Each structure stands twice: as C-alpha cells, then as structure tokens.
Amino acid sequence: MMDLGSEQTTQLSTHVNRKELLSNVMKRTSEWILSQDIPSDITIHVGRTFSLHKFPLVSKCGYIRKLVSKSSDAKLSAIEIPDIPGGAEAFELAAKFCYDINFEINPENIALIRCVAEYLEMTDEYAVGNLVGLTEAYLNEVGLKSIASSVSILHSSEKLLPIAEDIKLVNRSIDTIAYIVCKDSQYGLNSSTFDWWAEDLTVLGIEFFQRVLIAMMARGFKQYALGPILTLYAQKSLGGLVRSHPFNSPLCLEDISGKGRKQIEARIEHEKRAVLETIVSLLPREKNALSVSFLSLLLRAAIYLETTVSCRVDLERRMSLQLGQAVLDDVLFPSYSLPGGTFFDVETVKHIMMNFLEYEMVGNQLGFNDEENVFPSASDMEKVGKLMQDYLAEIASDSNLSVSEFISVAEVAPEQLRITEDMMYKAIDVYLKVCTLNL
Fold it and tell me: Which of 107, 226, 272, 332 qualifies as a cystine partner to 149, CB 3.0-4.6 A?
C-alpha cells in the first residue's frame, strides 16, 4: 500500500519541476526574442508608451495575462494601465524582469518594485522565482535590516499608497525602525546613534514621521527623549517659519508674482500648519524637555499660520512653565494683524504671563510633568519680573500701541515681581514721548 504522504510529495515535486522547466523555457524564449530583434506585438501605455512582446509579459504578469485572455479581440495589441503604482519607471523595471534583463535592487527602489510586482500579480503562480518572491526575499534579508534602509523604503512608500499599506510594507518598515531604535536605546547605544538616525527621519512626511514615533513609544522609547528629534524635524520641515530672529519674514518663497504666488503660499501654509500642529501634539509633557527659545519659535509659527486655538494655548502654557529661562527675544512676538495694528503681539505675552502666575499659585496642576520644581523658584520669579519690565520698555516705542494696551501689559506683572521700578519708569517715559510725537 502506497503512503499517501509520499504520493503528495511526489506530486508536489513534479508540479514544481514542471514550473521550473516552463520558467527556463520562458527565459530562453525571452532571450531569443531580444537576440532576434522580433517586432513588438503589443503596446503598453503607462504614462509613456512601451512597445513590447506579449509572451514575456503574460508569462510572468498575471494582470496582463488576464487582460489578454479576457479580451474579445484575439489580436489585442494595446493595453492602457493608467493607475499603476510608480508609473512608467516602475513598469519599466517590471518589464525588464520579464525579459530577464538584469537591474539593481536597492533600498531606494525596492518599494517601487515590490508594489508594481504586486499590482501586476507577478507571483510564483505564474512563474517560478517571480518578482513578488524576489522582492520579498530582498526585504527580509537586506531591506528591513537597518534603520537607514527601512527609512528609505518608508519614504518611497509615501508615493505608493494605498498599495504599500495593503501589502504591509509601511507597517513593516515602521516596526523595523522602532525595534532597532529601542533596542539600541535599551543597550545604551542611543546616544551614539541618535545623530544619524534622527537625521534620516526628517525625510519622512509628517504622517509617517508621527507613526514612527508612536511605534517607538509603544516599544518603550521615553517621550521626554523625543525632544531633540522633534526639534530637528521642525527645523527641517518648517523651513523659514522657524527662525532665530522674530522679525524676519515668516515664510520664504520663491519670487513668484501675481495670482500664482498666493496659490502656492496657501498650499504651503496648509501643509506647514498640519506639520506644526502634529509636532505640538507630540511634544513631551515634561518641563525642560525643550528649550524655551524653541517653544517660542514654534509659537511664533503657530501665530503666523493661524493654527487651532488649542495648539497655540498648549505652546503658551509650555512657555509659561519655563518663562524664567526666557530672554527678551523669546517674547517679542510680531503682530500679523492688518496694517495700522500694533507691531508687537502683546496679547500672546499677556497669556503667557497669566499662565505663569497661575502656575505660581496652583503649582503642578496644569497637566504637565515636573519632577524637579512644583512651583517657580524665587530666582525664576525675579527673572520673570525683569523680563516683563524689559519687554514693556521694548514695546513702548510702538506708536500703534494704545494707552489701554500699554497699561494692560504693565499691570499683568504684579508688584512683587518687580525688583526695581527703573525700567518701568523708563518704559513709561519712552511711551509718553512716542505719544507726544504722534499728536
């Protein structure tokens, strides 16, 4: 009596051998077609036109084989594939594979090749060692083995949606990055590797960047350690909006005149607004995880971009917790109001100051983590008092500042914060002189 398992193994072996034999025949046929310079018998339109041969294509591409077999035209000579992932560049690589023309697979093009192979159904069902299997082997053995290559694959996947999501290429890349970062951090290697991998992450769009950081935290990466990464990403992605001087033009664009400039500005501002709001949502809750100067730059950008109120309020509250570390430039917010308004945005500074005073009264009840100091120290109180007097002296020269606005800023800092009244008197003197000149 024949063993059933042996019979199944024999049948499987025979099936594989036949597929391998057929694959070798197809390979020789492709080589013969190329060597004989046989006229093409099918045209593929994928953004640009490719004049090719049916046999190499249908032998490896299930998608094209189905189109040809289902066509009512026995002599089908043209196929249009308008929505192929990666467009003409991706299809050209797939076509080369069908013709057994060698090309390099690397971290920069593997996502493109893997997605087009999936779309064209280039599986082992149609040819042994087909492109889907080949690309999967590369991903498992090379592509998804380091942060740099995984970031490159993830970055390429941004233009290959939704198919890159469907085949789990996005999630696999994110998981690899998070795993390696957290493993290095666990073994004390994070400090030595931070510079290069954090720089790598800045090429990602904000959605994928956010997903990577969330995956890192899910694996145990501490949120307070995200500060330097977010700082670097903000500097790269927000461009001219994150500047060291408050009164430079907030948005640097090419000199495009007329209606086109306005359209480009609106699109860029919309994108940057989404980036900024996401960055703020990811900021660590711990005090001193970020410098007050960097928080000031983010708030300045938030005011310009007119982000959500919650985004601006969050940044104001964060600044208030570290106001004792601020210098004058950190609180000189320009006003982006209509012509005729004040040069300085005094309302934002008043909000920050009131938050600081609230923090003084209620301590650590504002929703932030502060394991060092529950209340502002005496030194902080002294520094904030001097800062507000310096601020008042600075804005006193603004001729558009009304008397009521000037007084409201002067009153926001209580007397106990004032070490000396000298700067207050100086500010009042400057303001009165400016008002007199405008009479």
Answer: 107
Look up residue 38 and give its DSSP letter. P
Residues 6+ apart with CB under 8 A from 428: 396, 410
- Per the DSSP assignment, residues forming a β-bridge with 79 are 44
Contact 79, 64 (CB under 8 A): yes
Residue 330, CA distances (Å) to 165, 295, 346, 348, 389 in order: 42, 9, 13, 12, 14
Can you spell out the DSSP letters for 128-171?
TT-HHHHHHHHHHHTGGGSHHHHHHHHHHHTTSTTHHHHTTHHH
Token pair in block for residue 3:
């063993």
- The label of the residue with tokens 């997605």 reads 115
Residues in Cβ contact with 212 at an 8 Å cutoff, skipping those fewer than 6 apart: 154, 174, 177, 178, 201, 204
Token pair belonging to 121: 């159904």
**CA-to-CA distance for 242 and 425, rounded, in angstroms?**
34
Residue 166 has pLDDT above 60, yes or no: yes
Could you give the CA distance from residue 20 to residue 192 in angstroms, rounded to a whole number?
48
Residue 24: per-residue pLDDT: 55
On the question of pLDDT at 242 being above 70, the answer is: no
Among residues 155, 86, 75, the alpha carbon closest in space to that of 120 is found at: 86
Alpha helices in 187-291 (DSSP H): 190-201, 206-218, 227-237, 258-282
The gap between the terminal CA atoms of the chain, to the nearest Å, is: 116
| Residue carrying structure tokens 């929505």 | 83
Give the H/E segment covering residue 45: strand 42-45
Contact 75, 117 (CB under 8 A): no
Q: Which pTM value belongs to this model?
A: 0.79
Are residues 400 and 342 in contact, defined by beta-carbon separation less than 8 angstroms? yes
| φ/ψ (deg, to 5) at 419 | -75, -40
51: three-class secondary structure by DSSP: strand
The angle, 0 to 180 degrees and rounded to 10, between the axes of the packed helices 190-201 and 147-157 is: 20
| Residue-wise pLDDT tens digits, 66-121 | 988 887 666 778 889 988 999 999 999 999 999 888 899 999 999 999 999 999 99
Residue 154 in contact with residue 170, Cβ under 8 Å? yes
* Arithmetic mean of pLDDT, 253-264: 34
137 pLDDT higher than 60: yes
Distance CA 75, CA 68 (A): 9
